[in-house]
Amino acid sequence: MTEAPPHFRVAVIGSGFAGIGMAVRLKQAGLEDFVILERADEVGGTWRDNSYPGAACDVPSHLYSFSFAPNPDWSRSFSPQPEIFDYMKRVAGEHGIRRHVRYGHEVLSAHWEPEHNRWRIETGRGPLTAQFLVSGAGPLADPAFPDIKGLDTFEGKLFHSATWDHGHDLTGRRVAVIGTGASAIQFVPQIQPKVARLTLFQRTAPWVMFRHDRDITKAERWLYRNLPFTQQIARKSIYWGRESYVFGFAKNPRLLGVVEAMGRANIHRSIKDPELRAKVTPSFRAGCKRILMSNDYYPALARPNVDVVTEGIAEIRPNAVVTRDASGRETEHEVDTVILGTGFHVTEPPIAKRIFGGEGGSLADHWGSDAQAFRGTTVAGFPNLFVLAGPNTGLGHTSQLFMLEAQIRYTMEALKYLCRGGYDRLDVRPQAQRAYKEMVDRSMRGTVWVTGGCDSWYLNEEGRNTTLWPTFTWSYALRTRWFDPRNYDLRVDAGARTRTRARAGV
Q1: Do 309 and 323 contact (CB within 8 A), yes or no?
Q2: pLDDT tens digits for 422-459?
Q3: Average pLDDT over residues 227-239
Q4: Beta pairing class for 174-178 and 337-340
Q5: How confident is the model over 68-88, as pLDDT tens digits?
Q6: Which ranges constitute the DSSP H helices of 291-447?
Q7: Which residues pair with 354 in a beta bridge?
Q8: Helix residue ranges, H only, 393-452
Q9: b/e burial code for range 385-423 (CB count within 10 A of at least 16 → b)
Q10: Least buried of 1, 21, 110, 267, by fewest C-beta within 10 Å?
Q11: CA distances (Å), 163 to each of 48, 51, 195, 349, 400, in order?
Q12: Cα–Cα distances in Å, from 96 out to 25, 27, 87, 130, 505?
């Protein structure tokens, strides 16, 4: 007789901020019957993996932490990657999370089994089952590689910023950097002084603002440690300051003219060459793409050993990157190292290809290019599944952890409701999901993300923003503060009947 796989009440995919936060709340509610499935050998998610030079957060430190686990010892107003990684490991240790983590357990597939009312999960180290599945595999989990002809023929060193090769010495190298996103603007200034030549291939110039970063003094840290309410005041002031950005992004994009003036001033402060200034000046409304922050990116581009190339890449050859201009003329740029700063699979997360609903189709097939979820968390046809950092929960102005905590609270309220009522299955009603999507789309009209004149990864093929939350984050927190059973079909343990409730509403 084949031994049954281990069964858990809740299985959580990933041990980044989403997975750790979910685990802490489960334990605080007294639910110990859960497992965290982690493909790596340590917790930390994207802050474990992204260790490239200069990696740091672009949200102020006091806001980029769990509300239940403040850190009085941040060294800077914008935390560097090693400190964030250490913080996550410390929270996991202090809350007893590690004993629930199964390292090296990459989720290969998860199938809903309606006949058993459970998820069957295949991992790299064997199967298991769970009544509820929580996906904490965030949008920055899997690096995206560009579709460039000849990429696999390059004979030098090639790697993505998310899998930085620290053993490869860049001193004296001829380096190509492809991409000008959030990662690139952080590592380019760090490697520029070392390399012989750095060629930056830019498809679209981003808006880059001056970052008001500074050391947090010993006196401030003493204050936060001994009078915790002072750090809460700092956190709340940062939160409400960041919320004010929504007036420009979502309510009146014309207000962003002030931001654009600041961005141009940042360019003029650091770059004197008119031609280079023109190359790095964006042609779209600020906020249409993610606004970046750096004090040393533009000065690095102005150095003699840096070239900014705006012609499109035609192909990569064994020792060169080849560009082609509008007239068809090709230029070969000889390099021995290629670093890809080409981002992640945000709108098409690979984990969605591995989660299969009751009818057999994957979450990726169900979504196509139009990902949607009720409250950004539950998906019709995928019972007992909760997706953290799901569709339309991303942000362009403040801490993603605020949204994650709201989703975690909503998930916990759902689990508590099911437990109290003796239910063993929930499935969001399709009409509720449709109504929620329509509400999001109405709120998105007129925002900079759809009217700003850029081609961003926020939008799907039809031009719909499937990524960002369209308004103030406090309004999302209100929507997810309590579980709303009227929007769900619920099943009780004792029978197969479905509890019918009031008509779906948003």
Answers
A1: yes
A2: 999 999 999 999 999 999 999 999 999 999 988 888 88
A3: 96
A4: parallel
A5: 999 999 999 999 999 999 999
A6: 297-301, 363-367, 400-421, 430-444
A7: none
A8: 400-421, 430-444, 448-451
A9: bbbbbbbbbbbbbbbbbbbbbbbbbbbbebbebbeeeeb
A10: 1
A11: 10, 8, 19, 18, 22
A12: 12, 9, 14, 21, 39
Residue 123 is encoded by which pair of tokens?
């991992």
| Coarse DSSP helix, strand, coil percentages of the chain, rounded to the nearest 5 percent | 35, 20, 45
Strand partners, 208: 292
Reduce the DSSP state of residue 184 to 3 states and report it. Answer: helix
Question: How far from 470 is each of 99, 180, 288, 476, 488, CA to CA, in Å?
Answer: 38, 25, 12, 10, 24
Q: What confidence tens digit (pLDDT) does each residue in 367-402 have?
A: 998 999 999 999 999 999 999 999 999 998 999 999
Angle at 459 between CA 454 and CA 460, to 5 degrees: 130
Contacts of 254 (CB under 8 A, 6+ apart): none
**Angstrom distance (rounded) from CA 71 to CA 56:** 16
Region of residue 457 (left: phi > 0; alpha: psi -120 to 50; beta: else):
alpha
Distance CA 66, CA 53 (A): 25
Please list, in sequence order, all residues whose beta carbon lies within 8 angstroms of the beta carbon of residue 390, skipping any fewer than 6 positions away.
371, 373, 376, 377, 379, 407
Token digits for 456?
């961003």
For residue 191, which amino acid is it? I
- Using an 8 Å Cβ cutoff, are 47 and 24 in contact? no
How do strand 498-499 and strand 488-492 relate by DSSP bridges?
A: antiparallel
What's the rounded Cα separation, in Å, for the pair 394 and 396? Answer: 7
And the tokens for 358? 């009751």
